[in-house]
Each structure stands twice: as C-alpha cells, then as structure tokens.
Amino acid sequence: MTLLLFPAAASAQQWEDLFNGKNLRGWKQMTGTARYEARDGMIIGTTTDSKVNSFLATTKDYGDFILEFEFLTEGINSGVQIRSHLNKEKGRVFGYQFEIDPTDRAWTGGIYDEVRRLWLYRMAENPAGQQAYRKGWNSARIEAVGTHIRTWVNGIPCTHLIDDVDADGFIALQVHTVGPDKQGAKICWRNLRILTQDVERYVTASPAPVVNCIANTLTPEEVADGWKLLFDGKTTRGWQSARKLGSFPDHGWTVEDGILSVNKGDGSESTNGGDIITDRKYRNFILKVDFKLTPGANSGIKYFVDPYMNQGAGSSIGCEFQVLDDKLHPDAKLGVNGNRTMGSLYDLIPAPKGEWEGYTIDGWQRAMVIVQGNHVEHWLNGLKLLEYERNNQMWNALVAYSKYKNRPNFGNAAEGYILLQDHGDQVSYKNIKIKELP
C-alpha cells in the first residue's frame, strides 16, 4: 500500500524515517512484556500475558510534527502514543493515543488519554470517520501542531482535538493487555515517517468536528457555530440561586481552578447552598456539561425548570439528566427499572444498563442534552442514552405514574431555566456550554 499524499508537494517535505525497516534502532520498550521485533520491513508486536500495556517508544521526543504510518491488527485493540511520557514511579506510559479499534465500535482514529483523562475524542463525535477503518492494512496521518491534533485514517478525516496539556513527548507503539484467548496475536506497523520542519506549512484542512478540551473556552469554530459559555471558569456570573432569584448562594458552592463545585452537605436535597439556575430561560438548545463525581455522590442537570413550581423542601422541579454514582448511592436501586441511574431522565425513562465508554467514578464525564421542540435526547461521553417526545398523550401518561404526577403540565413548558442540583454531595462542573437552536 502506498501512503496517501496530501495537498503539499511530497518532494518539498523533509520526511524522516522513524523505522529503518531492519532493526529497532531508535526505539526502546518502556513498559509491559509484549514482544517487539523488526521483520520483513515491519515492526511486529505480539501479545503476551503482560499485566500492563506494553509500549515501544522512540528515544527522541517530538513537539510539532506530522506523522504517517501504516498498521494492521489481528483483531486486537491497539494504538500509537504521541507527545507521551513515562511515569517511572508507577511504571506507566501516559499521554495522547491514536486509537486502533478493529471492533464494531469503530473508534479507530479517535484520541484517548492513556492512564489520565481517558477518552478525549470519541469517534461517535464523527460518524463519517467511523467508516474509515478496514480489515487489512490501513494508512494513518496525525498532525500535532500547537494545541491542535488532527487525525486521518485511509485519507478520511477522523478527529480535530484542541488541548493544551502536553506540548511534546515520545511516540510509542502499543500492544494492549489481552485475555488468554488473544495470546500471540499480532499488531504490525510499517512505513513510519515524521515531518518536523516547516510543519505549519503542510497542515491539512479537516472537516472533522472540533472537540475543545481546553477548559472553559470557546474556539473560533465554536463561536462561529453559535456556542456560548455558561461558566467562565472564574466567576459565578450567569447563575443565580433557584430560591433567591437575582443572587448567588452565599455558601455551598465554590469556584476554584476553573471548576464550579457544589460542596459536601448532609446528602439531602437543597439544604446546603441550594440549587443554582441560569439567569435566563432556554427553549431549543444543545447543552454540554463536564462533571466529576465523588464516591457515592448524587446531583443532577435539570432543564425546563420552573423555580416557582416547588416552594417547599427539596429541589426545584424540572426534567433531570441524573448525575449519580450508581454503584454506591442507594437512589440507583429506587424508582422503576433503573430510571434513577446515571444519565436517566430521572424517575421517568431509564438509561440503558452498561458501563459507558470512559465512565470512571474518579474521571470527568461529558453530559449532553439536546432539545428541539418536543424532541429531547440524553447523551453521555459521546453515546446516546435515550430520546423522547413530550407534549403528547404518551408523555403525559408517563408523568402520571412518576413522582411528578401532581405537578401541573410537567415537562411540557416551551422554555425554562437550566439547573445544577445541590443534593448534599460534592460534585464538580466545568466546560458548561450551550448552543441555541432555531
């Protein structure tokens, strides 16, 4: 297979071979016990019973570059690390990873943050790119320039990530840990080459959707697309108490290091600082919120909130994207058929059961709520959990069998406030963004 050439003339580019086709000079194994060898113009990695992922890394670090290579996998997950590092104390490689995923999930070309933040760009963000991978040999291109990382598979744009955590580091070839049935499986790489001179001159325009991981910022692309920040990372501007409109709670909430947190209370609803809502109402929108739980925590992201509907004890009333530690909080076992678990439409529609990609109790998760008229969707970490239609007979019947049965016209309002819930547990939020839809 010949590597795909991109618009700039190949003859003008000063490519450097990362692999001489004969031996592993310029490479060293960092972790794991997988076997790496140079044979027939390929670097071949073979799985073993290694307890940790294995990485064959360049002996040099690279900052801005364009990397091209070809890869083939015998049905096992793998990846190529870029701008990565070794934690010597823990014996673990960490950093950005170009995903190689031969499964039906089809996330090849996505970007994973090994060991640290996990998924940064899931290929569910770009369905067109999920069609790029094919059985047999595949070509890959990675452009890492400044805070922008773009990937292609077989010439098809896959990702455009913006992130500022690592500016340089080594490149490494991963052999993943596998079960007994996958021992001896192989992953192969060939034609590895890198461009480090005049890199910006050869950057390729990509139509892949932009995912911005720089906290509480908007890219020019996001601004042009109509996105706005609901949290600036420094102040509580744009938010108010759900019980004392026009003012922010004087305790129970903090802003520190770009993170908005509801602090630990006694575990009950709205008895510490209380819920907070946006300064204005919203009708049709896409809302994105990054959140991080503490063990056993409960909170929620609500929309179509009417702060006057409940003037008594407890939280303000609205449709709720449940934010919950399903394993440790008892609420997960209440309700009907799991309709109080993570990502569910609280007490109404359960999210599917399962371990969602990138979901760890100590990591950041991304919730997304899409409202277009009467159609609503819940997403978690790039995967659609559920969708529903409101303002119809079926919706009203559903409400009639829920805890909201005595709330007039629940969920049918044309517009409402967006709310972050105080449920007496510490939960953190950042990257709160909204795009209003027509």
The helix count comes to 2
Named CATH topology of the largest domain: Jelly Rolls
How many distinct domains?
2
Range of helix content: under 10%
Largest sheet: 9 strands, mixed
Annotated CATH architecture of the largest domain: Sandwich
Shape: elongated
Termini distance? 47 Å
For the CA atoms, what is the radius of gyration? Answer: 24 Å
How many strands appear in the DSSP assignment?
Answer: 29
Contiguous runs where pLDDT drops below 50 for at least 5 residues: 1-5
Question: How are the elements arranged and paired?
Answer:
Blueprint: E1 15-17, E2 27-31, E3 35-39, E4 42-46, E5 54-58, E6 65-73, E7 78-87, E8 92-100, E9 111-114, E10 118-121, E11 138-145, E12 148-153, E13 156-162, E14 170-175, E15 186-195, E16 210-212, H1 220-224, E17 227-229, E18 239-241, E19 253-256, E20 259-262, E21 276-278, E22 285-293, E23 298-306, E24 317-324, E25 365-372, E26 375-380, E27 383-389, H2 393-400, E28 417-420, E29 427-436
Parallel strand pairs: 13-16
Antiparallel strand pairs: 1-15, 2-5, 3-4, 4-15, 5-14, 6-11, 6-15, 7-8, 7-14, 8-9, 9-10, 11-12, 12-13, 17-29, 18-21, 19-20, 20-29, 21-28, 22-25, 22-29, 23-24, 23-28, 25-26, 26-27
Protein traits:
438 residues, mainly beta, Jelly Rolls, 2 domains, 9-stranded mixed sheet, 8-stranded antiparallel sheet, 2 helices, 29 strands, 3% helix, disordered N terminus
Brief summary of the model shown:
This protein is an all-beta fold and 438 residues long. It folds into two domains: 10-212, Sandwich (Jelly Rolls), CATH 2.60.120.560; 220-436, Sandwich (Jelly Rolls), CATH 2.60.120. It is built from two helices and 29 strands.
